[in-house]
Amino acid sequence: FEAGWVRLESLPCPLPGLAPELEGLRIAHLSDFHLGFPSRGAAAVERAVAWVEERSPDLTMISGDLLSRRSGEARLRELLARLPNCFVVLGNHDFALTRDPFSHPAEVYDLEPATLLADDSRTIELRGKRVQIVGVDPRSYRRRRAHPERLADPTADLRILLCHFPNVVDKLQPGAYDLVLAGHLHAGQICMPWPGGRLRLAHIRWTYIRGLYRRPAGTLHLSAGLGTTFVPFRFLARPEATELSLQSA
């Protein structure tokens, strides 16, 4: 049941130095669809996309792991077409760079009308301000060849980094980005009650779990994601879709 019990949350996101014109800018953050693998996570994805479509935010960001098998590609394209002003990066599961035996390569290189970023960037204008969006390719990141700090434009009014892996925030220079959006961890996916919190069986040693973290390189928002891997279950780690409302810190 929990794998389809999606949390739909609007969250204030304070950013130091935010331009007054961008106050209240709304960014929907989705992650880890894992379509093509039989799971109630597919229902969570459908509900999340319908919610974002209804709310019509200024930007929609998706931080990787869209597909676990190529059979989910057609539905993925239908869903992406409904999301406003959508920017996407891929994750390790999109290339089957994982120990999950049920994951198959499902490489995609064009997701129009969504904009797919792979170690490149786009700069758009919102409310008269320049907003730069940089995306990291999971293959170059895994090979330690990605250098997103080199793509950051210091003249942009808002710099957003989209990367599947949350620990990228600890590899950047201070102030490199205003906002870093990531996924990958599923908030542990299967968790057990533990003194002082939860034992997250999928990712025991990770520093970040889900939510907002203020770091020298920028503010990280880590999504719990929507789908599942290895097994089609979640426990004490609900799937989620988040709308971030930017505010001056």
Describe this structure in words.
The chain has 249 residues and is mostly beta strands. It contains 3 helices and 14 strands. A 6-stranded mixed beta sheet has the order 1-14-2-3-4-5. The longest helix has 15 residues, at 41-55. It is globular and about 45 Å long. The mean pLDDT is 92.
Layout of SSEs?
Layout: E1 7-15, E2 26-30, H1 41-55, E3 59-63, H2 73-80, E4 86-89, E5 115-116, E6 120-126, E7 129-135, H3 138-142, E8 158-162, E9 179-182, E10 191-194, E11 197-200, E12 211-215, E13 218-222, E14 240-248
Parallel strand pairs: 1-14, 2-3, 3-4, 4-5, 7-8, 8-9, 9-13
Antiparallel strand pairs: 2-14, 6-7, 10-11, 12-13
Main sheet makeup: 6 strands, mixed
Question: Total strand count, please?
Answer: 14
Principal-axes geometry comes out as globular
Number of helices: 3
Q: Uncertain spans, ≥5 residues at pLDDT below 50? A: none
From the alpha carbons, calculate the radius of gyration and give it in angstroms: 17 Å
Order of helices and strands: EEHEHEEEEHEEEEEEE
Q: Helical content, roughly? A: 10-25%
